[in-house]
Amino acid sequence: MTLTCRFRLTVSIVCALTMTNCAASRPTSADAPPRLTLPETAARPCDLYRLPDGATLADLEIGYVTRGAQLVACDAARRLAVETLKAERAAQAVSP
């Protein structure tokens, strides 16, 4: 003698409808993902020193030091932009 469930078909249909309904619904969170503001220094293009026409040895030495400082500042701004982007993506990954 085997036991049969009279409601097997009904339970299967209800279960399938419930799963289909949940899969088709949108997430209930109305919150926008967090956005961080990019600092102005990170968005500004980098300036690089150019030698004037008829440059002398003194102009070359000034340009060498000035350009080195400008490259350091440009790299710091680039790092700041990358850190801001990584922090924003990490915040979006954590938020529901």
Q: In one word, what is the shape?
A: rod-shaped
Radius of gyration over C-alpha positions, nearest whole angstrom? 31 Å
Percentage beta strand: under 5%
Alpha-carbon distance between the two ends? 51 Å
Task: Enumerate how many helices there are, as a single number.
Answer: 3
How is this structure best described in words?
The longest helix is centred in the last third of the chain and has 38 residues, at 57-94. 61% of the residues lie in helices and 0% in strands. It has helices at 8-24, 40-43, 57-94. It has three helices and no strands. It has 96 residues and is an all-alpha fold. It is rod-shaped. The chain has a domain at 35-96. The model has no long low-confidence stretch (mean pLDDT 78).
Question: How do the helices and strands line up, and which of them pair or pack?
Answer:
Elements lengths: L7 H17 L15 H4 L13 H38 L2
Can I get a quick summary?
With 96 residues, the protein is mainly α.
Describe this protein with a few key phrases:
96 residues, 3 helices, 61% helix, single chain, mainly alpha
